[in-house]
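User: I'm new to structure prediction. If I give you an amino acid sequence, what do you actually give back? Let's try with this one:
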Amino acid sequence: MYVQYSAEDSVRYLAGETDAYELHVLENGGVQHNLAFNYPFPLVIEKAQGAYLYDIDGNRYVDYLQAGGPTLLGSNYEPVNQKVWEVVKESGPVTGLFHPYEMKLAEKIHECMPWVEMYRCLASGTEADMVAIRIARTYTGKQRIVKVGGAYHGWSDQLVYSLHIPYTKTFEAHGIPKEVSENTSEFFPGDVAGLRKVLEENEKAGGTAAVIIEPFGPESGTRPVAKDFAAKVRELCDEFHTLLIFDEVVTAFRVGPGGAQGYFNVKPDLTVFGKIVAGGYPMAGGVGGSEEIMSCIAAGVKAGKKKAYVGGTLTANPLSCAAGYFAIDEIIRQDAAMKAGENGDKLCDGIQKLIDKYELPFVTWNTGSIVHFEVSGVMYLSAADPDVFKKIPERQQYIEEFGAALTANGVITLAGSRIYTSMADNDETIAETLNAFEEVFSNIER
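Assistant: Good question. You get back a string of structure tokens that encode the predicted 3D arrangement of the chain. For your 446 residues, that looks like this:
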């Protein structure tokens, strides 16, 4: 969806004369979720294989969306598919009762991330973030939560707060009562001193239940943080008796079998998982942590005991649990995170050389297989800028046009500013991609 805000609306909002902008929807794209829209119109994909996507017209694209990140092995990975289908032949996709692969998946996650002693399957990363907060509040008896400004932790009511750009607060929380986010606070990405101030302020209101972060920085490291950031947040959480939640929807298994917590050797109290725990299959999310904390989740009616109520009829089904187990097992066996990371290194290096060659004011960097490139810096705008809401749609348009140009040259990215490489990439796909970037770069007016 492309959204246009008028200059008059911006002035009224910043002057405090209105609570929200009037949205002028120019294009909704006719799609079901945000990632499915490609400016200026959505693509209809009918085949995915390895490093490539094929649309209904027969066009082939190098796939760097990778379903939003989970298909680290490459799309439609046959060795995993075959094993999943064998399970489903016997049990069907869902039984409504316990299945052996629920336990096998939990054991595999614990094997990779020892701090995850108990694991609960859920339907999505959004659900997992929501449940993690509910557990934290139940366990600590506190209400307030703290997130990093600009971070995305799904679309539950309490977390649609300062999305993408720090300190925009409830700007995108249309349809959500303001009181829902009254217990949500934020601090600027990487600002440990700022987090301390927020925690100290929260102490006056009963304390903080949890601090939730992406360990590499918000939006998969779009705003990178210092290497010791996670460790320092851990120290502050211990000092203020606050739970630390790692949102590893993207980083779990993608940055290595141990995820970000293994990479930094920092122990979170709760870990949020996303699509990777179902290997790219549906019903993809979960939350895990210590036995003591995870025991706060309700399992049936427990009169007189405080329990975090959590449901989900279709979660933990044979299809998704088997897919997650076999995919993670194969990721480890193939050393897929390392291979995908090497591909990310090569691609990032190639893009940087092209930026230098054409003397463009762009930047690129990567954390292994997570490759960022910024051509308009829309997420780096400041809420204090009086023209920020005029600049957002302008810079968004630049990203959309840049992404469309790459798509026209056979490369699919995430929103024109991020790339997820996979084990399926190789020198050929990287060369195709760099040729596409060069074609676009060479046609940019200076």
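You can read the tokens as a compact description of the fold. Here is one thing that stands out. The first strand starts at residue 2 and ends at 4.
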